Automatic annotation (TrEMBL):
It catalyses: GTP + H2O = GDP + phosphate + H(+). Zinc chaperone that directly transfers zinc cofactor to target proteins, thereby activating them. Zinc is transferred from the CXCC motif in the GTPase domain to the zinc binding site in target proteins in a process requiring GTP hydrolysis. One of its GO terms (cellular component) is cytoplasm. PANTHER family: COBW DOMAIN-CONTAINING PROTEIN, COBW-RELATED. This is GTP-binding protein. InterPro entries: CobW-likC_sf (IPR036627), CobW-like_C (IPR011629), CobW/HypB/UreG_nucleotide-bd (IPR003495), P-loop_NTPase (IPR027417), Zinc-reg_GTPase_activator (IPR051316).
């Protein structure tokens, strides 16, 4: 009895998603520094070739794995890497009891969630706890109703549709009225996920971790939509997981005949039925093109060994993002400022710029890194302007 109980204990995985700049790393840092009784391993994925995020995650004893070789939403290309990282993690699973996967801000989380159930060895050891989607209360409308994407794949929508928990973050930047209207829109996209509110990701973590919000049938449903063959994954009892008709069986991977995707009744309010009711003409085209990015969004990275004039740089960023911030979704940076031994952090979401000193560089080699993510970026122009802020 004892042995059986232990072998059934699976490691819960939380998938943390949300559009660029919604507050995923902020929430992750909050989770990593709070006492919640979980020992957490993290898999991080960043969109952009220069890694800034790992510098922004607070130092902690937790295991942090980077995946920089692509976007984990690109299921076909990177799935094996994700599985490899997961296997590496599982080889010392005595060190933690919960895994958080932070997806890139442009990822559709569904293929990520599904990936763990395609590899049989991994599927035997892990279970999905929840997809937690952060929503930037101030900027989400720009992305939900993005005119460039009208009628085509929209990651911001896909992230909300896939959520088991929705966290409306940055409520300090939105009025009560705007929040009410936003929550109404979110409810139309996802009829079942509890909607929570937070500032700087501060939320009662019992609503986020260990919630067992995920329905295995949902994974199977999505795998079908994504045309992923899971039938080879016969379970330890020698039958295919979806063929289990034992009503008493509580094996989490067994779908006992709840084919939620068959329910198309718009008036049905059964919380087990997923109704992907996209308002405003959005189609959930993730189902059709499972790993397509918004091709109009590009990321440009810049690295400079020289130090910056902090004031000049601050003024340039404020002006430049003030002018182009509708098109520039996200800017991040680690900056070496002349005459200051501290590492400066640049964080901007659209026009909202935050540039301030952080901790001392210490032994780390001083060099500045920037990532700009957006549309119609003038790479050479940005490079010239940044260079103009270097101390000569
Ligand atoms: N005013 C305000 N700012 C916030 C809040 N939460 C996060 N931020 C700020 O928003 C910016 C983006 O936060 P991150 O946590 O880096 O966002 P992210 O989702 O990890 O960003 P990407 O990795 O680029 O997708 C940072 O400057 C944060 O300090 C909040 O509740 N209120």
């Amino acid at each position: 009895m004892h042995i059986e109980a232990a072998s059934q204990q699976k490691l819960p995985i939380t998938i943390l998603t949300g559009f660029l700049g919604s507050g995923k790393t902020t929430l992750l840092n909050y989770i990593l520094t709070e006492r919640h009784g979980h020992r957490i391993a993290v898999i991080e994925n960043e969109y952009g070739e220069v890694d800034v995020d790992s510098d922004l995650v607070l130092a902690s004893d937790e295991e942090i794995f980077q995946m920089q070789n692509g976007c984990i939403c690109c299921f076909v290309d990177v799935r094996n890497d994700l599985i490899d990282v997961m296997k590496k993690l599982l080889s010392h699973k005595d060190k933690f009891d919960h895994i958080i996967v932070e997806t890139s801000g442009l990822a559709d989380p569904t293929p990520v969630a599904t990936a763990f159930f395609v590899d049989r060895n991994v599927a035997e050891e892990v279970e999905l706890d929840a997809v937690v989607t952060l929503v930037d209360a101030m900027h989400i409308d720009q992305h939900l109703y993005d005119p460039v994407l009208d009628g085509s794949d929209n990651q911001a929508v896909n992230q909300i549709v896939a959520a088991d928990r929705i966290l409306v973050n940055k409520i300090d930047l939105a009025s009560e009225e705007a929040l009410g209207s936003l929550e109404g829109s979110l409810r139309k996209l996802n009829q079942t996920a509890p909607i929570l509110r937070s500032t700087y990701g501060q939320v009662d973590l019992s609503n986020i971790l260990g919630v067992k919000g995920f329905r295995p049938s949902y994974v199977r449903e999505r795998a079908e939509i994504l045309d992923i063959d899971m039938d080879d994954d016969s379970d330890a009892h020698g039958h295919h997981a979806h063929d289990c008709h034992d009503a008493a069986c509580d094996h989490p991977d067994h779908d006992h005949g709840h084919h939620h995707h068959a329910c198309t009744d718009a008036s049905c309010d059964n919380p087990d039925h997923h109704h992907h009711d996209h308002d405003h003409g959005h189609k959930n085209t993730a189902a059709l093109r499972p790993h397509s990015h918004d091709a109009t969004v590009k990321s440009h990275s810049f690295v400079y060994p020289e130090a910056f004039d902090g004031e000049k740089l601050g003024a340039f960023l404020k002006d430049y993002l003030g002018e182009h911030g509708d098109d520039i979704f996200r800017t991040k940076g680690i900056v070496s400022v002349a005459g200051d031994n501290r590492f400066f952090v640049l964080q901007a979401v659209h026009k909202l710029v935050d540039f301030r000193p952080d901790h001392a560089w210490g032994e780390d080699a001083r060099k500045s890194k920037f990532v700009f993510i957006g549309r119609n970026l003038d790479r050479d122009g940005i490079d010239r302007s940044l260079r103009a802020c270097l101390v000569s």
